[in-house]
Amino acid sequence: MITQINSKEEHGYDWYDIFNPSMEDFETLKDKFKLHDASIKDCLEIGHLPKIEEFENYHFLIIRSIAEKFPENSDTLTDLTNRISIFYNEDFIITVHRHQLSLLSELINLDKTNKRLKSSKSLVNSLVSSSIKTFEKLIIEDLSLKLDDYEEIVFLHSRRKPFLQKLYYLKRQIDLIRIIITLYKDIVDYFHMPEYKNIYTQDLRDIYSRTNTLYRNTGENTAQLLSLYFNIESNHTNEIMRILTIISVFFMPLTFIVGVYGMNFKNMPELEWYYGYPFLMVVMILISFIIFIWFKRKRWL
User: Fold this and answer.
1) Which residue of 12, 23, 124, 170 has the fewest C-beta atoms within 10 A of its own C-beta?
2) CA 269 → CA 176, 266, 274, 277, distances in Å?
3) What is the pTM of this model?
């Protein structure tokens, strides 16, 4: 569905918004703005990471923003993010998307005299800034809080296993977003070129740098938390094995004695000895006491 937001006569450039695009939507726009088939094909395909391409008479961008709602176990590009494809030059801008996006609706509903809409370049810059801000908002308001909760579980809770799957998906989400943020660099650098450079492009670079740093630090913290979790679990396993080993050391000599006198041979004089049973009990207690003292001196207990 095509909607014309701005007209060149009134605002200096045409702005067309296409929701849930199909090839038929581009029939008139393709000839009017001389759009290349390759960029239209990319626009209609599902997927694609952020990029910017320069054609003869326009630029083609793909940007991504965080989906407003996604399952906690999301770890794919299409589940975690929404895509906006943008065709633009000084005279026109075409935005294409498959989902209703609040960042786009906010720009559409702005007063037409707003500085963010004064030119097609300002509008594209605003779209890129708003899309990067969705990543920043996600990590500040959601992912970092989850990571804090998981750290508390690792260090303070005895039952840790149920959270491991959640931490895995959190790491997958951060890794995927870091790839997207990295590919945004070409777009940010493009708008920071001398011919486009202004206060808004500087703000875009600041937002990008801040978001990139946040995700890099959070990614490192997540990897460290996973490593700590496995180390703690390994230490816990080692502690269990140590206790079981100590118990087995206590019982090995006792089991040997019991096994010897449980062979039931007829010619075993000790079996007929009146004090045989209490004597063996004293011997086993003494052996256990000696093992206990030995362990204490070695500081294994």
Assistant:
1) 23
2) 78, 9, 10, 13
3) 0.72
